[in-house]
Amino acid sequence: ACGDGTTGGAGNPNGVLNIGMPNGPQTENHNPFLPSSSSNSLGYRWALYEPLVMTNQVKPDEEGKPWLATEWTWSDNFRELDLTIRDNATWSDGKPVTAQDIAYTFTLLKNTPALNINAIPYAEAVAEDDKVTVTFTSSQFVNQMDILTQTPMVPEHIWSKITDPATDTVKNPVGSGPYTLKTFTPQTVTLTVRDSGYWQDLPQVKELRYTSYNDNNAQTTALANGSSEWAFTFISNYKAVYVDKDPEHHKLWFPPVLGVHGLFLNTELKPFDDPVLRRAMNMVINRNDVFMQGEAGYFYPEVKNVTGIPTPAGESFLADEFKGEEFEVDVDGARKLLTDSGYTYSGDTLLDKTGKPVQLTLSNPAGWSDYITTLEILKDNFSDLGIAATVDKANQDTWTSDVDTGQFEAAMHWTNNGATPYDLYQSIMDGALYKPVGTAGVNGNWGRFRNADATEALHQYANAADDTVRQEAMDELQRIYVEQAPVLITGAANAGGEYSTKNWVGWPDEDNQYAPAQPTQPNALDIILRLKPAS
Amino acid sequence: MGYLLRRVGFYVFTAWAAITINFFLPRLIPGDPVQSLIARSQGRLDTSAIESLYILFGLDTDKGIVEQYGDYLGQLFRGDLGLSFTFFPTPVSEVLADSLPWTLGLVGITTVISFLLGTFMGVLAGWWRGSWADMLMPVTTFLSSIPYFWLGLIAITLLADRGGAFPSSGGYDPGVVPSWDMDFVWSAVHHSLLPAITILISSMSGWVLSMRNMMLTVSSEDYITVAHAKGLSERRVMVGYAARNALLPNVSGFALSLGLIVGGTLLVEIVFSYPGVGFQLFQAVGAKDYPLVQGIFLIITLSVLVANLFADLVYLLLDPRTRKEG
Amino acid sequence: MVTTEPVLEIRDLNVNYGLGDDAVHAVRDVSLTLNRGEVLGLAGESGSGKSTLAYGMLRLLPPPGVITGGQVLYHPRDSEPIDLMTLSTAKLRRFRWSEIAIVFQGAMNSLNPVHTIAAQLCDVIAAHEPRTSRAAQRSRAKDLLELVGINADRLGSYPHQLSGGMRQRVMIAMALALEPRVVVMDEPTTALDVVMQRQILAQLVELRERVGFSVLFITHDLSLLVEFSDRIAIMYGGRIVESAPAAELYRESLHPYSDGLLHSFPALRGPRRELTGIPGSPPDLRAMPSGCAFHPRCPRAFEPCADESPVLAAPPGSDERPGERTVACWLHAVERVKS
Amino acid sequence: MALPTADVMPVTAPVKRRRRSRLLANRKATIGLVIFGFFCLLAVLGPVLAPYDPGERGDQLLVGPTADHWFGTTHLGQDLFSQMLDGSRSVMLVGLVAGVVATVLGVLVGVTSGYLSGLGSEGLSALSNVFLVIPALPLILIITLSLPETDDMTIALVIGCTSWAWGARVLRAQTLSLRRRDYVEAARATGESTWRIIGFEILPNLTAVIAASFIGTVIFAVLSEITLAFIGVPGVSEWNWGAILFWAQSQQALAQGAWWWFVPPGIAIALLGTGLALLNFGIDEYVNPRLRSSTKVRGVRMRVGFTPVLRGSGHGHD
Amino acid sequence: MTASTEPAAPGTTDVVLEAVGLTKHFPIRRRLRTLFAAQRAVHAVEQVDLALRKGRVTAMVGESGSGKSTVARLMAQLVRQTDGQVLLHGEPVRTGGRRFRAYCRRVQMVFQDPFASLNPIHTVRYHLTRALRIHRSETSAEELLTRVALTPPERFLSKFPHELSGGQRQRVAIARALAAGPEALLADEPVSMLDVSIRLGVLNLLRDLRDRLDLAILYITHDIASARYFADEVLVLYAGQVVEGGSGEAVTQRAAHPYTRLLIASAPDPDRIAGTEAEVTDAGGGEPPSLIEPPAGCRFHPRCPHAMARCELEAPPRLPVESNGDGPHWAACWLYDANTVEAG
Ligand SMILES: Nc1ncnc2c1ncn2[C@@H]1O[C@H](COP(=O)(O)OP(=O)(O)OP(=O)(O)O)[C@@H](O)[C@H]1O
Ligand SMILES: Nc1ncnc2c1ncn2[C@@H]1O[C@H](COP(=O)(O)OP(=O)(O)OP(=O)(O)O)[C@@H](O)[C@H]1O
Ligand SMILES: [Mg+2]
Ligand SMILES: [Mg+2]
Fold first, then answer.
1. With CB atoms counted within 10 Å of each terminal CB, which end of chain D scores lower, N or C?
2. Neighbours of A145 (CB within 10 A)
3. What is the DSSP string of A393-445?
4. C-alpha–C-alpha distance, residues A26 and A314, integer Å
5. CB-CB contact of B34 with B57 (8 Å)
6. What is the CA radius of gyration of chain E?
7. C52: Cβ below 6 Å to ligand 1?
8. Is B213 exposed, middle or buried, given 0-12, 13-18 or 19+ CB atoms closer than 10 A?
């Protein structure tokens, strides 16, 4: 909004791209492995460091693009990875990227558990010529993507001199990416394009400016007035507040990825241990209302399929029997389902099989406004079924520990996401993650769902040697989900972003789904490389 | 002398109390930084990250609370506030170094301006009682009853959003590099105007009211009548006699209510997304970042204490009765 | 020294507290003349309006005091009399202290606690003689302090560092700073003990001899006045009820109230006097008795007293010096009418 | 933030008879009392009067004031007027409870430390100064977040327990000046017990000061509570005005132009605050008559130092 | 008569209340500079002996700050003495909790300021009935008011202090003191805050009570003339010490101690003929001494026109002064030491 020539939409003439994140002031920390670093928080680590492979999360079944690795093969039941490293890449200090560096990176993660964020069980990484062989102690089928596309590669000659890589803020980042660090301030990080030595054509964006806005509102304002050209933030009324400010250029695209948000019912509590009741409850949830009102009609995309697998990302994983099975609200059907299996009504109140009224407390931290809004909608939906729900706006910390220890009735929660629906289902119904109520430390399955078949199927999926077994396991999981409704899914996780086509074009969108539009994903690098000045 | 001794004792005691509260309170907060980091990411961080985070933050070792307290005190003496979790592994002191100047600049300066301006207006309102100055009172009362944050939000809507003259958030324009050049200074000043005005409007009224009351009280003292009888000029009586004496209680009031004021003004930072300690504190509380919470709380308390010490010294200068007996 | 040349004439002064119907008439139709060089004592019990009169004539009354009538004429050395009631603020400011200075009862409260004695002394000089240099002001302040018997090294002291007696002396010094012709003293020694009181009064008497100013001395201690003043006026219920030369008043008071006052304090020496005191309690200004305000307490009240208030006038048989002796009492008025 | 005004005022001898009428005769106090009474009434009746269930979703999403929804609706179609009415109870309840708790603590600490002497007294006084100096809002924030369970009551308690210090300080100063009064000594000389002296001789003389400190704390408590709710600290009742503002803020209501979501709570808070502040001024002026504002009667401006001369009006004659 | 210079012998029936070697030091708060120095104190009252007798008024005069009120408070046991004893009928008084009430019943105090000694929020009735109830007295409030000449009592009972005049308030305060039925009444400047015209009424009331109730009264004042008028015995206090004592007439008419002489010379006296100013100046000037570090020897010596070398070294004991038949008379002044007298 101010007349400063260096900001606003004037990026194009100077080749600047303004990227924003609503993450508050940053401290200088370019360590690509630390989730708390500014490079991670704002996403610029991917402009400095590169992964081995670039995959498109929006279409996880597509083959990845070679990046630092030109070839990768999994063998031996996904316990061994053979990589061929590109020979024309250099670090920004001019030294070539070698297979030794790649092996070093994996060894570093193996030796520094604090940095091994995805807890990958590395066994060994050995380099030989341009080949690297990485071995694991268990099958990594479900972690393929984490290893190949989410691991930034670092130069050995720099990192081997760092005494404690877990607590080093890497003030002078040296990576293989097309950009180098120019300046850092708590509010803005500026990267400039390398002069030479990048293994592919240098991007047309000469300078990346990452600005950290203090909150969603500030970020939204920046987007609306054009000072941010690319961001990832929640805008409650995006049409009026953002798009309408410049309908021609202000765009957003929020494709779903393979993760979901849903209402976790504590399945250890009566009567919610009854799949019939859960199914009935699932039937009355108005996912569209949640999407339109709770998620402003774009943020967490609606999950249409009955299996809870977000489409189109998960299209290829759907079992034949569920292909095209769209979820629909069916209050009467739900009521019938209940009365058929022993539930009764006293007036408008649903009574369970023992004759007790069905009641439910929905809880989520007070500050999470989209979840709370969703709960309000669910509460309304459940009342159609005769279930009296109350919304409890909890203290975030209490809530976190209550969910962790299973001391809740129902809460909105998210699942992990991954390259396959495995992560999603694992978070929902993996019996291996089960811990009894009162015990903390569950990494998923917060609803304490126990179903031996599901656990078995998940195990099989992760460790199967061939694809048919895997497909069977996946079909089985979908069947169990539909029958048991362990979690009432409300929406999909996203990997989207808001962007402006005023100065730069070539963004991914509905028609050109080459990457998720989120500026903090590895794919951001791919996007930046494809941007062209608007004519 | 006795006065000073008591003040010094008081400062030490307060500092200790703050440090102790500071240590124990955050530890009573349920949950831990890892859980809350995961929770805040709402799915963008994989659950498998938990283990590595525990290791990273050094939360995998157990220590008794008393031992921790001892360590904490020891650390403090070495000037070490620990490492922040949210910005791991940045030391808290570094986070503070980034944010404190903003707060001092905004809250500190405006609080002082507010006090000075409010006091000045209070002097006028008290002295010219029964004239136009009385109009000030209802307005002031109303303004002082509005919460800071609401005023700030309205100010943003009216003056910042939709092409208004002021930026609505941040401490300076994105893209400007902090340094002592015109661009930056102008940008920083520009960004601080709206929050500063908000603070001024809502905190000044308190000073206007209390100074006016003190002026009225002092006006009926004999020495004011004597000053009039002496034929001194109006200004001399008002400034040198009435205001000078009325100021004393106001200065000590200022010192002691700094805590209240600062607490309230921090909210302005949140509303204006100003990169100061208030904003950081709020974030850190949410993130269970004890070292940061402790550090910020401690620094705010100490700043208030230092301001207090300063106000005390001013008081000492202003009131000859507290000086060393002659 | 004492002449009959008036310096200050109060004519029919009326002072109210408050406005409208619930106003309190604290001073009613008071006329009083202060002659050059004399000490005029003003006595009366608490609440009789002494201070109100003193402040009122200088227009120093705090709100809600208002002056509702009368004149206060000041006779400058060689020009027309000035009516203080009609002076503009600026003129009044210039007039104050240079012509009439005032010493209040509580010296602690009269001195500004945050400025040094020197500052406050210089203040007044600077305000009226702006061209005086700093150094001159200071040396003047030093002289003044020495005048009242305080060592000049006390100049830098703050009021709280001085004892009560010293503070009162500082006030007196300050009052004399501009060599005014009139000094009003409102109970200047009541807060002090007798030893100090006498020291200060002795000094005052001596200063008057040297400097030559008139004093309006207000107190409720009649015995003190008899000893120190030339003339005494007695106030009751907002009016002057009697005025006479001090010795005469002591010897033979005409008004029963003055008489009662004189018989309220025991004598220190000589035979034990009979003490009668005054029965009853002082009047409430809000509900003044009709007629003579003193009549409900007066042992010698008779018919006219309750109905009409007596006028202040010379009693019969005192014609030789007009204005020297006046009384407002039907006892004496009736006689005058008769004679 | 209304600061308690004058620091230490001499307690003038209260005039019992005229006391009530005088406080009421004060226009400020009356207006303040009316506003305060109005909000108290709302607190009692508000939830009953609310035309809708404040949490109920409606069809009209985010519409401005209409005949159906006087204050408009939220993004879920909830009726804001009902939310305001419903929220008034929590605001007033927390404010008053916190006020009572803080006042009781303030009286206990202030009067005890004022009446007793020695180390205990000094300690208590130091304690209250510590509480004054430590920034209040961050402290309250940290404490509320430390508590495992919070509801309106706990929040009221937290605010009450942290905001007594100012009252204690003022009361201590007053008690110190009262303690030396002859009538306290006289009561002692008569043989009254200590608690009776505190309870019957000193406390009644502090009524006005206590009332002022109570009202001051209520203002502070209301503001703090609303602030907490606005920041999103849980436990504050659902439709507390601060919570309404929280929702408005998290839905970026202002950016969306939904001013009706923001304005009513703000105005209500300011109005309540103003009412309380006025009431406090009334008390201040009652305790210290010098503060009475109106010195301008019938065109006469009274000034210290220059007494007005009125000619021809009410003369001293009877 | 030397007998009276000693404290009255124990068992003397008419001595009601007696102070023996009463001393009070108020400690001063330590300052930084003096943190490690010895604790300093205001020596407010030092070695005061006095006896209150049944049906007699003992006056105590002295300038401001000489410790008069402190003596009264000590005698009333509102303040604990640093040293010395208060004897009630020869019994040392110990006042802890319960026993304090019993002591109150017998020794009552009237304060200087009638405007401050009544609680503004309580009625006259409350003040009196509380006192009566505490001491389980049979008397009624009406009776008390009648006794202090506030008649008709009904008119005053339900009044608040602000509705009464100063004299009336002081009477109520006296009535309250009488409610306990005391034997000794300590009146700390009971009339100095009152209007001249009504002082006399209160003094006369006290005198009347002395006669009717046989009260032992300690009358504290700074007005030596009223002491002469009202008291049977006068003690002069200077800087916390009694410097002279004797019958009212003896002390006021033939003051022996130089300080008493100064006091008398300073008192306003309409009968004084102009020209006797010399007498005053002769009596000395200066200011009262610091009580924190009081002068050694006789505390008056720095101001005394007759000071001798001895005065600076030794504090004088009570020395008899020749009396002209108006009762015992003594002074604590070396001028009356046999040796000095001889030498003079
Ligand atoms: N502000 C006021 N409002 C109303 N009445 C007042 C005010 N100030 C003084 N009075 C009344 O005016 C009368 C005269 O007061 P003033 O102070 O002049 O008496 P005084 O003779 O000086 O008494 P004292 O000897 O006690 O000083 C008193 O009855 C008093 O009650
Ligand atoms: N509580 C106290 N703490 C310290 N010093 C005290 C205290 N009370 C009295 N003093 C000191 O003791 C000395 C005697 O005081 P006291 O009040 O007995 O004098 P007084 O003769 O009654 O004076 P006055 O005529 O002014 O009433 C004074 O110097 C006073 O400052
Ligand atoms: Mg007076
Ligand atoms: Mg005394």
1. C
2. 22
3. EE-HHHHHHHHHHT--SEEEEE----SSTHHHHHHHH-GGG---TT----SS-
4. 35
5. yes
6. 21
7. yes
8. buried
Are E113 and D15 within 8 A, CB to CB? no
Which residues, other chains included, contact E209 with Cβ-Cβ below 8 Å and sequence gap of 6+?
Answer: E147, E174, E178, E185, E215, E217
Partner-chain contact B173 A4, CB within 8 Å: yes
Contact C140, C123 (CB under 8 A): no
Helix (H, G, I), strand (E, B) or coil at A247: coil
pTM, 2 dp = 0.83
Specify the residue for token string 């030339």: C230
CA distances to A441, A464, A485, C31 from A277, rounded to whole Å, are 28, 33, 9, 103
Burial of A283 (0-12, 13-18, 19+ CB in 10 A): buried
From residue D93, give the alpha-carbon distance in Å to each of B21, C123, D147, D213, D273.
28, 56, 20, 17, 15
CA A270 to chain centroid = 32
AA identity, residue E69: S
Nearest to C200 by CA among C214, C180, C212, C217: C217
**At CB < 8 Å, which residues of chain E contact D?**
73, 76, 78, 100-101, 104-105, 108-109, 111-113, 115-122, 130-131, 134-135, 160-162, 173, 176, 179-180
Residue type, E145: L
Amino acid at B228: H
Which residue of C95, C101, C114 is in closest CB contact with B320? C114
Calculate Rg over the CA atoms of chain B: 24
Q: If you ran DSSP here, which 8-state letter would residue C304 be given?
A: H
CA–CA–CA angle C9, C11, C17 (5° rounding): 115
- Helices B182-219 and B148-155: crossing angle in degrees, nearest 10, is 140
Query: Is A377:A327 a contact under the CB 8 Å cutoff?
Result: no
Show the tokens assigned to A132: 């690297």
d(CA A243, CA A499): 10
Q: Answer yes or no: is pLDDT of B297 > 50.
A: yes
Asked if residue C152 has its Cβ within 6 Å of ligand 1, the reply is no
Cα angle vertex A95, ends A91, A101, to 5°? 70
pLDDT (tens digit, 9 = 90+) per residue, E10-62?
444 588 999 999 999 988 765 544 455 566 788 899 999 999 999 999 999 98
- Six-digit token string for C49: 């309006």
What are the C-alpha distances in Å from D208 to residues A140, D16, D167, E318? 76, 12, 12, 54
Q: How many Å apart are CA B280 and CA D292, to the nearest integer?
A: 44
Give the count of alpha carbons within 13 A of D126, CB side only.
18
Residue D269 to residue B26, Cβ atoms within 8 A: no
Nearest to A393 among D56, D57, D234 (CB): D234
Q: Is the peptide bond before E270 cis (omega within 30 degrees of 0)?
A: no
Residue with tokens 């021809």: D312
Chains B vs D: touching, with 3+ CB pairs under 8 Å? yes
CB atoms within 10 A of CB D256: 18
Choose among A236, A253, A242, A233: nearest CA to A296.
A236
The nearest CA of chain C is from the CA of E34 a distance in Å of 20
- Least Cα distance to D231 among B281, E8, C129 occurs for B281
Count Cβ atoms within 10 A of the Cβ of residue B296 and give its class: 0-12 exposed, 13-18 middle, 19 or more buried.
buried
Q: Are E224 and E252 in contact (CB under 8 A)?
A: yes
Backbone angles phi, psi at B48, to 5 degrees: -70, -10
Cα Rg, chain A, nearest whole Å: 24
Low-confidence ranges of chain D (pLDDT < 70): 1-25, 234-237, 292-299, 312-318
Other C-beta atoms within 10 Å of A345: how many? 14
